[in-house]
Design brief:
Blueprint: H1 19-26, E1 35-39, H2 50-58, E2 64-68, E3 83-86, H3 92-102
Parallel strand pairs: 1-2, 2-3
């Protein structure tokens, strides 16, 4: 992501960080135009204090895009996220595809192959063309 958007601020958080450390790592989210929270886990829930952290982010004024590269059901506790992307692929190729899609380098054409209770039904999805040429 950072290679394609060098001015973006990229931070990594871990589920062992306490709430104060998560807030310190994030900094002031109000200076962001958007926040992308990507998770790579196949666990059924985010561990540690990550769930309340993402809930707090998604309830703030900055739009949050939740990206699940592993378990697609992880979005359920976050009904206020502005957008959701399920990649179903935590390999490097999946990470690159997500970055390209978020930055408009490739079209977004996905449809959910599963239903996510209280969030999306089988077949839901969006179609967005690429907005600019790949780098």
């Amino acid at each position: 992501f950072h290679k394609r958007a060098p001015h973006a601020r990229v931070v990594f958080v871990d589920n062992v960080l306490p709430p104060l450390a998560l807030d310190a790592v994030l900094g002031d989210p109000s200076v962001c135009s958007a926040i992308v929270f990507a998770t790579f886990t196949t666990n059924p829930l985010l561990n540690g204090d990550l769930t309340p952290f993402v809930q707090k982010l998604s309830e703030g004024p900055v739009p949050v895009v939740f990206v699940a590269l592993g378990n697609p059901y992880l979005v359920t506790p976050f009904p206020k996220v502005a957008a959701y992307m399920a990649a179903f692929n935590a390999a490097p190729t999946g990470e690159i595809a997500v970055a390209k899609a978020l930055l408009g380098e490739i079209a977004i054409t996905g449809k959910l192959p599963v239903s996510i209770p209280d969030f999306g039904q089988y077949g839901d999805g969006i179609q967005l063309p690429a907005s600019h040429t790949a780098r």
